[in-house]
Amino acid sequence: MEISWDPRTGTPVGETPTTSAEQVEATLAAAAAAARVVASVAPGQRAEWLRAVAEAIEQPDVASELVTIADRETALGLPRLQSELARAAAQLRFYADVAEEGSYLRATIDGRTATSPDLARVQVPLGPVAVFGASNFPFGFGVLGNDTASALAAGCPVVAKAHPAHPQLSARLAEVAAAALAAAGAPAGTFALVAGFAAGTTLVTSRHTAAVAFTGSQRGGLALWRLANEREVVIPVFAEMGTVNPVVVTRAAVVRLDAIAAGAVASFTLGAGQFCTKPGLLLAPAGSKAAARIGAALEAAAPSAWHLTGDIAAAATTGVAELTAAGATVVSEVPAPATGWGARPTVLSAPVAALTRGSRLLEECFGPVLVVAEYADDKELDHALGELQGALAASIMTSGADDPETPGLIARLAGLAGRVAVDEWPTGVAWTWAQQHGGPWPATSAPGATSVGAAALDRFTRPVAFQNTPHHTLPPALQAANPWRLPRRVDGRMVLVPDVDETAASGRGPSS
Amino acid sequence: MEISWDPRTGTPVGETPTTSAEQVEATLAAAAAAARVVASVAPGQRAEWLRAVAEAIEQPDVASELVTIADRETALGLPRLQSELARAAAQLRFYADVAEEGSYLRATIDGRTATSPDLARVQVPLGPVAVFGASNFPFGFGVLGNDTASALAAGCPVVAKAHPAHPQLSARLAEVAAAALAAAGAPAGTFALVAGFAAGTTLVTSRHTAAVAFTGSQRGGLALWRLANEREVVIPVFAEMGTVNPVVVTRAAVVRLDAIAAGAVASFTLGAGQFCTKPGLLLAPAGSKAAARIGAALEAAAPSAWHLTGDIAAAATTGVAELTAAGATVVSEVPAPATGWGARPTVLSAPVAALTRGSRLLEECFGPVLVVAEYADDKELDHALGELQGALAASIMTSGADDPETPGLIARLAGLAGRVAVDEWPTGVAWTWAQQHGGPWPATSAPGATSVGAAALDRFTRPVAFQNTPHHTLPPALQAANPWRLPRRVDGRMVLVPDVDETAASGRGPSS
């Protein structure tokens, strides 16, 4: 059994069953059996399935029940969880739209003749995807989060693992989703949930599994990646892992450091600091007294929240001790709530010289913990940035659009991170076409992948080229009549579909 | 020193120096130093560099010298090598065109305002790429082959390793390319060559290397993949590895089996069978006597050729013995040339029941060797296909466009291979927009990757999103004025550039 805990009290509030190895294999076999149908229906059909799931979780009585369960298991609070549920529904609809638009199929046709193209290429779904959702976003990155939604959109059945931080919510979400999918006509096996640590191992090693998507810690993600690499048939693992997301304050921005300090506190304490994009290191100009000023802002804000699990709470406490041992000094901390797994927001300062490759100071500390270091000059800043690991995101705090340091810092941080923000904090990941949520190793196990945004679908397909294949035997995406109305590349040129695309910059008509 | 051998005699014909570990590191450091310039110039500028290399190797005196060196080291014959050199030049120009067209950058802009987009995303080059070319295509897949051309096109400096099967050709090609690149204005460090086994190891482990591209055997590719996975900062390895590329003859196609037999012989003996896409297994209907008829065609054709190296020749001989030990019977073989590393084309037959996962019969035998098996019915064929490893390519030989078995076999083989050909043989890989040269594990170490075709560039970039970043500080690909004239996605919709794209199906003008 998996125990459900209340973080506010640190006591058990329920139990959910775990899944045996045989049940996991049977679940994956059902997913594999469903894979051909899920892959072969039109993307617009799968879009309807996703929209049905979105609608189901937004039903007022269901939403209310889900948020109540989630709050009891995560202590994230009703307002945050209500908006996160709405976000999960919006994401499901977004990936539905991306699937329907069809560019992700990259349909490409060379040398079409009367009987067949010389060569035609399309992305095909990989097959069943094992999804390991995150602890910290029970809706947005949980069993119905970005990974599940983008895998289903791309045409892959999903078997998700319940997160031990919210097993009851995982189970209820899966029930709601499975019912909605069935009612919408998706085949049995399209989506299922398993629970328990051993079930997770089987998910990665089973011959039925074609890919793994993971959101969480470096330790967890790399363990799954290693396990998959030991398979006879190695499968891709897309692990999106928490990082130290550096923030650089420019010299000219010191004039607005009080506002920056308030923003830093809001960002690193958001959700008890349990964000994979939490700013973990802030680099400010020497003499700015940034650590003290952020510490003062922290004490003024005095946020109060709980960690998701006892393990996370313990790791945050240990983490602060490790940061101190690595050369940092606690500048300010706010007491934790007296009951349960209370979080203790903490600002530390560290000498920039201590920021060396391999130091604990350059590893994530999951929780409301920020390390501040002061750099003397460009050289010292550049050296410190060169020591950092790859990151999901990085921010620059400037004095405004004409800050002379901005262009150089953007170029520098783009080499370290998957996303660079200017005068915004790294927390907060929009689900849009342009989003990149990933980054150089070890931010993700596959640096070209994103787990949020339209390109998230790309992880779960592979290309197949069809050579000299008669038109009528090609997949619909490549057929001469273009029944799915896809944007396609024909003989090297993009051809858009008028009712779908508005080619604002193109004035050429069909006869040109 | 690395020794150059003449396959026709099996004797040494020259020596080339190997590169010390210090030299390799210095070469990679120079590549890393060049990386920012190579990445930041306009794709059209890099296209000019590639075209300059193409022009340089096609200079008549240079081409003649290169082909002479290649023939002495590979015994592939002047006509094949002349056409392969022309192919290498055409490939360089193709990747230049793909870079210039710019879709590979996937420029995506969300929510553009007067000051900045909310979020804008573009692919950025990874950095120095280590290229391990193939033995069997000294021009097309060698030090200036698809991997080098696509990496340079994508904006990455390349350090290539000389192949021990053609060290002198590798060295001369590198000299010609380096001179052409320098004359065209590419920075020092854009392209360089190293030689020797130890140099290859350093190429993979150096902190300067951002990605590895490899073409060759499963053993070689997986060794590099494992080495890269042990790094502190793991880097992607795109290994395109030789496979058994199955060919299925339908029941209705038996009426034209003599033509198929002749085609099979031409395909599996092409270049002494030294193709990663060589058909290694042919499945024909029971009673067709396919093995005997292909054997007869082999004896009639009696092709004569040499292996590239003594190791390859020995492995082919060992391979036939291993296939026999695994249950196959030699049906027909043609004597090898009396001198040097002569190849002995061989047809074997095997009971379909012996085609079980893990059998040597389902592993590549590099050389002019084909295993033929007969299937009794759909069930037996389907079972055999289910035992196969992932493959680069697969072919179906049909009775014509109305063969009823074609659609089902296309769907089945698309699950196994990166390319499915109908009534054409798997050998021969066109460098076009729609090509896919890769496949499920172990055909490639990354199933979504191709080493040939426009998508080959995708291996060497990663996405970066810029959030709230002022227009003038964005990379050119994302600037409001679109200075590189790229096709871009703006607020979810593709926007093509009139002078570049003809949107044949779109009749909407700029004012719509």
From TrEMBL, chains A, B:
One GO MF term attached to the UniProt entry: oxidoreductase activity, acting on the aldehyde or oxo group of donors, NAD or NADP as acceptor
Matching InterPro entries, A to Z? Ald_DH/histidinol_DH, Ald_DH_C, Ald_DH_N, Aldehyde_DH_dom, Aldehyde_DH_Superfamily
Q: Name one Pfam family in it.
A: Aldedh
Its domain of life reads Bacteria
**Keywords from the named record:** Oxidoreductase
Boundaries of every Aldehyde dehydrogenase domain copy: 6-402
The entry's protein name is: Aldehyde dehydrogenase
Q: Which organism is it from?
A: Intrasporangium oryzae NRRL B-24470
